[in-house]
Amino acid sequence: MTVSIDTAPRTRHGSRPSSRSDTVLSVRDLRVAYGGDLRSPTVHGVSFDVAAGETVAVVGESGSGKSTLVNAILRLLDSSTAVGGEAFFAGRDILRLSERAFRALRGRQIGFVPQDPTASLNPVRRIDHQVYESFRESDQPEHADRQRYPALARELLASVGIVDPERALRSYPHQLSGGQLQRVLIGLAIAGRPQLIVADEPTSALDVTIQKTILDLLDSLKAEFGVSILLITHDLSLAAERSDQVVVLNDGELQEHGPSRETLTAPRSAYARALIRDIPRLNLDRFAPAISRRAEPEAGRYALEVENVQKSFGAGEHRTEALKGVSLRIPPGRTHALVGESGSGKTTIARLVLRLLEPDEGRIIVDGQDVSHLDRKDLRSARRHLQLVYQNPFNSLDPTYTVGRIVAEPLVRYREGSREERRRRVVEVLELVGLDESFADRRARRLSGGQRQRVAIARALSLNPDVLVLDEPTSALDVTVQAQILDVLVDLQVRLGLSYLFISHDLSVVRQFADTVTVLQHGVVKEDGPTAQVFADPADDYTRALVASIPDVARTATDLPVGAVR
Amino acid sequence: MTATLTLSRGPAVRVPGLSVRTIATTLAGLIILVLIAWVIAPSLFTSHDPYAGVPAERFAEPSAAHLFGTDQLGRDVFARVVHGTRPAVLSALLAVTIGLVAGSAIGLLAGFFGGIVDGILGRVLDIVLAIPSFLLAVIVVVSLGFQTVNAAIAVGVSSIAVFGRLIRSEVLRVKNLTFVESAYLIGGSRLSVLFAHVLPNTYRSVVALAVLQFGLAIISIAGLAFLGYGNPPPSPDWGLLVAEGKDYLYRYPWVVYLPGLVMVATVLSLNQLSTTIGKDK
User: Fold this and answer.
1) Which of A400, A464, A478 to mutate to test the interface with B (most CBs of B within 10 A)?
2) Quick one: pLDDT at residue A10?
3) Which terminus of chain A has fewer Cβ atoms in its 10 Å neighbourhood, N or C?
4) Per-residue confidence at A115, pLDDT binned at 50, 70, 90?
5) Per DSSP, what are the bridge partners of residue A304?
6) Which element (helix H / strand E) includes A364?
C-alpha cells in the first residue's frame, strides 16, 4: 500500500458539510473546573461538532483553555477536576463512560498526535518495539498476528512518508529528527484506524518547512481514510488554511465558531478581530506608517558590518562548520533580519557579533570599530554600543532582582552617573518601553512574558547602544504580546535611530518588521536583499521553499481581510 | 509559546485548610522553639540541679517530681537533658558553620572558575571524603583534647565535602542560565557576576542542607561523646547521658530512652524544617 502525498493546491474549505448525520464528535456545553467546583469553571460553554472527514481547528493563545478542552474530551484530566456538559462520540456520551469503556476508544477510535515529538516516545526503547506495542493494543483484525508485526510496521512507516523505514525502526528516538518522530507518532495514531484524530499543536516544535509536510501528511491521510481531525493550534491563519471550521477560545470561553474562511474575512467577535489584527501574516503592512517616519540613514556608514565570517566548532571528525563565509551590513536606524531553520548558523552569528565567540576568519565591525579580535578590556568598552535581547524572557533576567535593579545594572557596571541619575535613567528607559515607573520596584519573577521582554529591552537600552541584536525576541510569546513588543521596537527605532539585527524563524514577522533580510541554510547565505523583494520573488530554491511554507490564506500581501486595522 | 499536555494534580485527600505537611512543619517548629528556649534559659524549665544528685532518690521512675526520673546518682534526668541542650546545640552550630563556610567557599570557586581550579579543589574535597569521618574525629580529639568543641571541629571538617559538592553543582547549573551570560554583556566582570548573580541564586539549597546537617551534627557529636570523645563526666552532654545510662538499660530504661527520645525529636524536627525550606525554592 502506497500513499502519495498530495502536493496540489488545496481547495478552499468554504461551506459546512450539509449532512449532519455523519457527525463524529459532538461537544455540547463543555465545562471544566480545576478547582472541582463547576460553578466557577476554568473553561465553559464550549459547543461544536466535528463531521466525518472534516477538520475542526481549536484556536487560542496560552491559557485560553484549548489544551484543557482537549484533555477533557480525551478524559486525561485528574479525578479532582470536574467536567460538565456532554461529548458524543459514535452515539455515546464519552464523558459519562467508565474509564474501562473509554479505554477501548482512546488510542483506537480516537487517535492522538502530541505536541512535542521528541518527548513523546520512550527514549530507552527502539521505535519498532514501540510500534509493536501499539499494534498489540489495537483491536484491528490485521494486528492479530504477531508474526506479521515487522512487515506491518515497515508498511506503516512507509505510508507516513519515512524514507528507509527499516533503519528508522531499528533506531532509538534520539536518532531520528523531529519531523521523522512526528511521522512515527502520526503513524501510531493512524494504525488503529481511528475515526477521529486529535492533534495537539502537532507542528509547533518543528521547523517551518517540516511543518508544511506534516500538515500535508495529515491532509492526505484524511483524504484516504476519511478520518476527522481536531486540530489544536495557536495560529489562526494556519487553522484557517487547514481546517473547515474554526473554534476560537479565549480565557476559557468560546469567542467565535464558524467556517474558517468566514472567521477570517468577517469575524464576529471583538477578540477574533483583535487576534486577526495581530497576526503578522494577515497584516503585513502593520508597521509601514511608523516605519516611514524614520530618518534617512547616512550613506556609506554602517552600524554593523559582518565581513565574510567563518566559524567552526570541534576538531577532527567532530568538526562542524557553523558558518562558511557570511556577510551582511546594517545601515544606521535600519533592521536587518536573519532567517533560517535550526542548524542554519543564525545563533552563531548573533554570538559572534556580540563577541561571545571569536570568528575564525573574517571581520566584525561595529560602528566603524573592528571588534573581531579585541581583548577583554577593549571588548568591554565596545559592548556599550551593542546589546542583546534574548529569546526566552523567563531565563534572561535574574529572578532575585527587582526590575529597577536589572535595568540599572549596566549603568552600575560601567559606573555611569550617580545614584540619582541612574534612577532617573531607569524611569526614562522604562517609559520608553511602555512600562510605568511603578514597575521599578517589582520583582522580575512576578512579571508576565511580555513584561519581562520589555524589561530586557529596557536593560539593553540603558547604555544607549547603537545596535540591538534581537535573538528571536518574540518566539516565546503569544501573538498579541508579540505584536505589542514589535510595536515597542518599531517605536524605539523611530525615536532613537536604533539598528536591529533581528533573528527569527517567523517569516511573516520578518516581512512586517525588517528592511533587509539574509536567508541562511547550513552556514551559507542563500539569498539576501530587501525583504519585500526576497519574499515576493525569491531567486533561490531554499528561499522559495521557506516562502511556500507560510500558510497562505490571503494569496497576496495586500489582500487584507475585512476588520483588520492598518 | 508552548502548550503542553497539562494534567491537573488534585490532592488525594482534601481537608479544608490543613495538610499533613503543615501540621508536621508546625509541630517541628514548636519543638525547635522549645529547644531554643532550653538553650537560652535552662533554669527556667527545671529547678533541679543537673550536677548534684540525691543518692536516696536514685533510679526514681518518671513522675510529677522528676519528669524523666533520676539516674544512678539521683540526678534529675530531665534537668540534665535541658542543661545538656546548650552544649549540644552550640557545638553542632560550630560544626555546621565550619562545614558551610569552608565548603561553600571551595564549592563556589570550583564550580565558577572550572578548569584547573576545579581540578585542584575537587581533589581537596575528595581527600576529605576519603577519610572516614569518625576516624578524623578521633584524631582531632586525641590531638586537641577531650572536649566537645574539638569533636565539633572534627564533624565540621568532615562535612566540608558535602557542602562543597552541593554548592558546586548548584553553581554549575546557574552558571549556564542566560541571565548570567547577559550579566557579562552589560559590563560585568567575573567577580561581580559571581557575587551579584551566582551566589544569590544558589544559597537557598545550601540553607536547606545546613539545617539537615545540623541534625546530623547533633547526632554525630552525641555519638562521639558516647564513646568518650567529648566532654568528660559529669557534663550533661546528651551522648554522655546515654553512655552512662547504658549499664542500667534493662532495669531502668528511662535513663537512656528519654534523652534518646529528645534527640530523635530534635533531629526529625530539623529534617522537617529542612524539607520545608527546600520546597519553597
Assistant:
1) A400
2) 40
3) N
4) confident
5) A330, A366
6) strand A361-366
pLDDT in tens, A306-315: 999 999 988 8
Look-up of cell digits 528511662? B254
B268, pLDDT greater than 70 = yes
**What residues of B are in contact with residue A459 (Cβ under 8 Å)?**
182, 186
User: Quick one: average pLDDT of A416-438?
Assistant: 91
Chain A window 171-200: which residues touch B at a Cβ cutoff of 8 Å? 200
Number of A to B CB contacts under 8 A, please give it. Answer: 98
The confidence score (pLDDT) of residue A21 equals 60
Residue among B14, B188, B201 minimizing CB distance to A413: B188
User: Interhelix angle for A541-548 vs A208-225, to 10°?
Assistant: 60
Question: Rounded mean pLDDT of B68-86?
Answer: 90
Using CA atoms, how far residue A185 sits from A117, A153, A289, A389, in Å, is 7, 12, 45, 35
Query: Which grid coordinates are listed for A232?
Result: 489544536
Q: Do B179 and A395 touch (CB under 8 A)?
A: yes
pLDDT tens profile A346-389: 889 999 999 888 999 999 999 888 888 888 888 888 888 999 99
- Please give the Cα distance from A61 to A172 (Å, whole number): 33
- As given in the structure block, the three cell numbers for residue A247 are 473554534
B27/B11: higher pLDDT: B27
pLDDT for position A4: 41
Put simply, whether B18 touches A (Cβ < 8 Å) is no
- The residue whose grid cell reads 527556667 is B44
Residue B84, C-alpha cell as written in the block: 545538656
* Top CATH class, B21-280: mainly alpha
pLDDT at B107 over 50: yes
* Nearest residue, CB atoms, A413 vs list B3, B14, B186: B186
Separation between Cα atoms, residue A308 and residue A251, nearest integer Å: 49
Please judge whether B8 and A400 are an interchain contact, meaning their C-beta atoms are less than 8 angstroms apart: no
Q: What is the 3-state secondary structure (H, E, C) of A336-396?
A: EEEECCCCCCHHHHHHHHCCCCCCCEEEEEECCEECCCCCHHHHHHHHHHEEEECCCCCCC
Which residue is closest to B188 within chain A, CA to CA? A413
Q: What is the pLDDT of residues A405-418, one digit of tens each?
A: 999 999 999 988 89
Distance CA A201, CA A216 (A): 14
Query: Half-sphere exposure (CA, 13 Å, Cβ side) for B66?
Result: 23
**For residues A211 and A551, what is the distance between their CA atoms, to the nearest angstrom?**
10
The interface residues of chain B toward chain A in range 126-155, judged by CB-CB distance below 8 A, are none
Give strand pairing partners of A198. Answer: A112, A230
pLDDT band per the 50, 70, 90 thresholds, residue B279: low
Residue in chain A closest to B7 (alpha carbons) equals A77
Nearest-CB residue to B8 (from A81, A356, A477): A81
3-state secondary structure string across A163-218: CCHHHHHCCCHHHCCHHHHHHHHHHHHHHCCCCEEEEECCCCCCCHHHHHHHHHHH
Instruction: Give the length of chain B.
Output: 281
Cell, residue B2:
508552548
If one counts every other C-beta atom within 10 angstroms of the C-beta of residue A558, the result is 8
Q: Which of A30, A26, A62 is nearest to A43 (CA)?
A: A30
ipTM, two decimals = 0.71
Contact between residue A394 and residue A446 where contact means Cβ atoms under 8 Å apart: no
pLDDT interval class at B17 (50, 70, 90): low
**Side chain identity, residue B279:** K
Q: List all residues 6 or more positions away from A281 whose beta carbon is below 8 Å from its beta carbon.
A: A237, A508, A511, A550, A551, A553
Rg from Cα positions in chain A: 26
pLDDT at A82 over 70: yes
The C-alpha cell of B33 is what? 522553639
Residues of B in contact with A67 (CB under 8 A): 3-6
Tell which residue, A384, A375, A496, has the closest CA to residue A433. A496
* A322 sits in which H/E element: strand A320-330
